[in-house]
Design brief:
It is built from seven helices and four strands. The chain starts with a helix and ends with a helix. A four-stranded mixed beta sheet has the order 2-1-3-4, covered by helices on one side. The chain is an alpha+beta fold. β3 and β4 form a beta hairpin. α1 runs antiparallel to α2 and α3 crosses α4. Bound molecules: FE2/S2 (inorganic) cluster (FES). FE2/S2 (inorganic) cluster (FES) binds next to α5.
C-alpha cells in the first residue's frame, strides 16, 4: 500500500468499535490502488489489522468482488442474476467473449478488457444490466457493448 492508503487503513482500524469491521474497507483501498489484491498486500493488511494472513485470505475467498489477479483497464461485468438471465444476459456474455476472444472471466492479451459474470447488481428492473468499472449500464444491448469496445480501443490507440 502507498503511504496515504496505509495511513487511511490505520485510521479505519480505530474508527470501528470492532476492529474486524475495518477489513472490507481496507481491502477496498488495496483493490482501488492496485486493481486487485496482490499476495504481498495480504500480509500488509493482516499487520495493520492485527490478524493472521489466513484470516484475510478467508475473507477474500468469501467475497468474490475482490480480485486476486490483475484485471484489464476496463472491467466489464455482466449480471447473471435471474432478471438479467431472462432478458438476454447470456447473449451479452457470449457476444463479449466472442468479440474479445476471451474465456469466461478472462482478460484480453493486451490487458485492455476483463469480462466477468457477476451476481445481481441491483438494476433488475432495467435488465440486462452491465457494470463497466464503476459505471452502471441498464438495458444493455450488444450494439451498445460493441460501441463501447470500439470507443475504448480507439481511445487507447490514440493515447487519450
Ligand atoms: S438480476 Fe441483474 S441486476 Fe438484478
Amino acid at each position: 500500500m502507498n503511504a496515504a492508503n496505509l495511513q487511511k487503513a490505520q485510521e479505519l482500524v480505530h474508527r470501528f468499535p470492532k476492529k474486524s469491521s475495518a477489513l472490507i474497507p481496507i481491502l477496498h483501498l488495496v483493490e482501488d490502488e492496485f486493481g486487485y489484491i496482490p499476495e504481498a498486500e495480504v500480509q500488509t493488511v493482516a499487520d495493520v489489522m492485527g490478524v493472521t494472513p489466513a484470516y484475510v485470505e478467508s475473507v477474500l475467498t468469501f467475497y468474490t468482488l475482490f480480485h486476486r489477479q490483475p484485471t484489464g483497464k476496463y472491467l466489464v461485468q455482466v449480471c447473471r442474476g435471474l432478471s438479467c438471465q431472462l432478458n438476454g444476459a447470456d447473449e451479452l456474455s457470449h457476444f463479449l467473449h466472442d468479440e474479445l476472444g476471451v474465456q469466461r472471466n478472462g482478460t484480453t492479451d493486451d490487458g485492455l478488457f476483463t469480462v466477468e459474470e457477476v451476481e445481481c447488481i441491483a438494476l433488475c428492473k432495467d435488465a440486462p444490466a452491465v457494470q463497466i468499472n464503476l459505471e452502471f449500464y441498464p438495458r444493455m444491448t450488444k450494439e451498445q457493448l460493441k460501441a463501447f469496445l470500439d470507443q475504448a480501443a480507439k481511445e487507447v490507440t490514440s493515447g487519450a
